Amino acid sequence: MQNKNYNTRALVESAIMAAILIVTMFITVYVPIIRIITYLFLPTLLVLIYVRNGLKYALLGGICGFLVSLILINPITVLGLGAVIFIVGLTFIYCIGTNKKPYQSILILTMAFIITNIIYVFLITILVYKSGFVGWVHNMVNQINDSINVTKNMYINMGMDKEQVERALAGIESINVNQVLWMTPFYLIIMSLLSAFFNYKITYIIFSKIKIKIQELKGINYFFIPNLIGAFMIILLCLGLIFRSRNMIVGEYLFYSTYSLLVVILSINGIAAISYFLKYKLKFSNIFIVMTIILLFLVISYVFIIIGLVELIIDSRKLDPNRIRKSR
């Protein structure tokens, strides 16, 4: 009898999840501005049903919601969100099921979001833009340039000096298709990393409210770059330089994307190291730490990159289990 009640409850919760999926997808179609919220929230539904009732009911609710939405809503939107639900959701379930640490989970979820974003862009370029990915980028650049021209004319009509307006918009006006293509891998990785981070945070907050325990993600003080990832990125950067010196197009993509990504993560690593040192070694308050980091950023921002690189090598916080220098 107890087992029957459990099955009934699990089926009801799966049906509720399917209904929420359908409603959420409908809202996303008619209110596109909340797409980013649904993008981060939908995988949590699948994980929630898994934690409460198991994988079978999680898949049942997800598949039912997906199929009904596919019939009623724009297929491209449903396929894109469906990729998020199943690829990211199942990846998150794997992380919880294998008891991965928070930062390991975020790294794995980042890969899942990268795959999801690639699938979504592929669907857009195949089903909407007949000229493929490059045509999609070209159309996006044209839209940016059109917006710049409208903005420029608006400011000039308001009485602002034409040369001043052109100087202010010069950096944006210089954007072209090649630059966007070079930076695409960088933006893809950064957006996927941020999506993974916020998805984990949202899931943790929701689960905390309903008394379901998952490992808490520690603050930025504990952010670190594993040596293996750091070495891999440096190798990619060197390969990009070599290919670029031989006038190979792939060298431009590889170099600019890897360089931009390396600068960002080294800067974050540097901020984390400074914050850790000030908080736990010198016992400064959080307000003082924030003010110090802001001041350094405004005056000598490159110091974060240098400290991040040094911290990658020596790992003074001893966070990386595979660090180069280990205590004896």
TrEMBL record:
Pfam families: DUF2232 (PF09991)
InterPro entries xrefs: DUF2232
Entry keyword annotation includes rRNA-binding: no
Domain of life assignment: Bacteria
Membrane-crossing residue ranges in chain numbering: 15-42, 54-73, 79-97, 106-129, 186-207, 219-243, 255-278, 287-314
This protein's record includes keyword Hydrolase: no
Swiss-Prot/TrEMBL keywords: Membrane, Transmembrane, Transmembrane helix
The protein's name in its UniProt record: DUF2232 domain-containing protein
Provenance organism: Clostridium pasteurianum DSM 525 = ATCC 6013
